[in-house]
Amino acid sequence: LLVDKGNHRHFMEKEIHEQPEVISHTLANYLNFADGTVADFDLPFDFAKIERLAISACGTAYLAGLIGKYWLERYARLPVDIDIASEFRYREMPLPKNSAALFISQSGETADTLASLRYCREEGIPISAIVNVRESTIARESDGIFPTLAGPEIGVASTKAFTCQLSVLAALTLKAAKARGTISPEEEQALVRELSEAPRYASQALKLSASIEKVARELSHVRHVLYLGRDTNYPLALEGALKLKEISYIHAEGYAAGELKHGPIALIDEQMPVIVIAPHDRIFEKTVSNMQEVAARGGRIVLITDEKGAQNATLETLETIVLPDVPEFVAPIIYALPIQMLAYHTAVIMGTDVDQPRNLAKSVTVE
Ligand code: G6P
């Protein structure tokens, strides 16, 4: 298989820029944009009949699953257990008969995810998987697959596979909500329409390079970074920190903003920038009060928000990265882009091997 970088310096940069297109392809596989409905695709279980869903994955795919949990529980009222696959495989979790399993894997070959799948097979529950490689082992051993249409991902740090996994999870959330009767046809239509705008918002997010490069120059001088967010921005904070660690080798931690005072606040000083992901949503004010706690201790804040958030956050920041105002349901897909770009530009400035970071592998097929 021959894939080249086109006009880009790195595969990662190319893959970041492909996102509007691949998100669009992926969503179109699961949604009917013309009439604003969820498509009629096959599932190996009935969302109306299951009482729990167990999700298991590794790395960035795990973080996509964590966002999926917030969505499925909120919109479809479906309780979701989510585990890191290396924990799931050994923790002997009881799986009630009326539950189903969902595995998420770009490669479809990750050893721990595959072992978790086989554990569920032994337990006799229906198995589904979100995979990017359709010929993979995980795809073959599943009862049903939900492909991401990201195309080959070469950069070791996952980018477009992540936003395509989120796109599938968003569509599955609507499928589940419809089956479980937790959304009306009008709500279904409104949410499908919101998702249909995701590629356009993603293109707008890609234009933020200038403010992101400015922050990247700051980050290239620091040793530690704290990422904060609430609700679906919490898994994104974890993903932002993971991306920075993976390719720039800066020590970064992601935290739920509300946990700040239970530990990480002790670390705050001028040396450790705090990146806060906070669109102007239901809990924006709560996150602002966390930022005030950071500012009061001399912490320097990078705020990733939308236009409304930028107007309402009366705080001094090192930099504010302003995205367009996007509907809450779509926001996690869009906010993934600035955090990927931030890690990318930081790594480029620091001169690391962006596509092949040290000690990491694209696909971890050994335990
Ligand atoms: C490795 C990669 C990550 C990826 C993880 C899970 O750690 O470097 O980018 O998220 O494996 O891989 P999978 O193929 O199962 O999604």
TrEMBL record:
Active site: 362 (for fru-6p isomerization activity)
Keywords linked to the UniProt accession: Aminotransferase, Cytoplasm, Glutamine amidotransferase, Repeat, Transferase
Cell location: Cytoplasm
Keyword Transferase found: yes
Residue ranges of domain SIS in the record: 43-182, 215-357
Record's catalysed reaction(s): D-fructose 6-phosphate + L-glutamine = D-glucosamine 6-phosphate + L-glutamate
Gene Ontology MF, one: glutamine-fructose-6-phosphate transaminase (isomerizing) activity
Known EC number: 2.6.1.16
Main localization (coarse): cytoplasm
Record's subunit section: Homodimer.
Described function: Catalyzes the first step in hexosamine metabolism, converting fructose-6P into glucosamine-6P using glutamine as a nitrogen source.
Record's protein name: Glutamine--fructose-6-phosphate aminotransferase [isomerizing]
The species this protein was found in: Nitratireductor aquimarinus
Gene that specifies this protein: glmS
